[in-house]
Model the fold of this input.
Amino acid sequence: MARLRELHLLLTYQCTFECDHCFVWGSPFQVGTMTVGQIRDLLAQAEKLGSIEMIYFEGGEPFMYYATLLESIRQVKARGWRAGIVTSAYWAPAREDALLALRPFVDVGLDALSVSDDAYHGSNGEQSPPRLASQAATELGIGTSAISIEPPSPTVPPSGEGKGEPVVGGGVKFRGRAVAKLLEGLPRRLWQELTTCPYEDLADPMRVHIDPLGFVHLCQGIVLGNVWARPLVHIMSSYVPSAHPISGPLLEGGPVALARAFDVAHEDSYVDECHFCYDLRDRLRCKAPEWLAPDQMYGVPES
Ligand code: SF4
Done:
């Protein structure tokens, strides 16, 4: 059984921003938010795994539900785990405001604040909310780190690296809204070359994401089970990577093997492995709805 060390809880799919690169389609119009009661239940389920060390709260934007977030961090710390938050810091228009927002988190023992610090999230210098939030966190003794994503652009690797052909720089992962918004003008590779999953340890995951609907995600939109229907410990103990309908083929030969396993039509070229993988999964949802969910991860508006 995979020995999970971290859970990343998507406290809400809602966000004040609607970034082009967001791979969970965060937006003010998204639907799905965890309650304090659900988080309490989830943490009790997590305890049964016996291997958890840290819980992250992310989204969407978790600070949109401030009271729920604060109480959740308190509950995580009461169980003896480390606690972290990923945020855009939209709530930090000035130093004083940032300190006021963060002080209660010092009282409950928050360990880490990870701030999205890039133009997508309104960062444009030392006085922007992400910088002010990071400075306030440091002042209060909370560990901070920055997540900086640049718009993707074609770059040529330095001589001696690769084949000298343009690659895509910037750090965007081509899943979710990035696939709908950021592909134009980027170099592509033939689909037959995309034979690995470069970013997730599908065979032995150290972390999973759990969303407000209860879905446990191996990678965003690839589901292992639902914690509101089946305990997390059972979901993880019954995960056999090679037998999972989606991760099995991905492990065997990346998106190429997934396309062949389901005999699904696709394009001739893609920007990278994640672009191919996400496009295939979007096409396959009707064939494997249990494993490719929920609508939120595939940008399907609520009807
Ligand atoms: S190839 Fe697929 S499973 Fe692997 S990281 Fe990319 S989107 Fe996720």
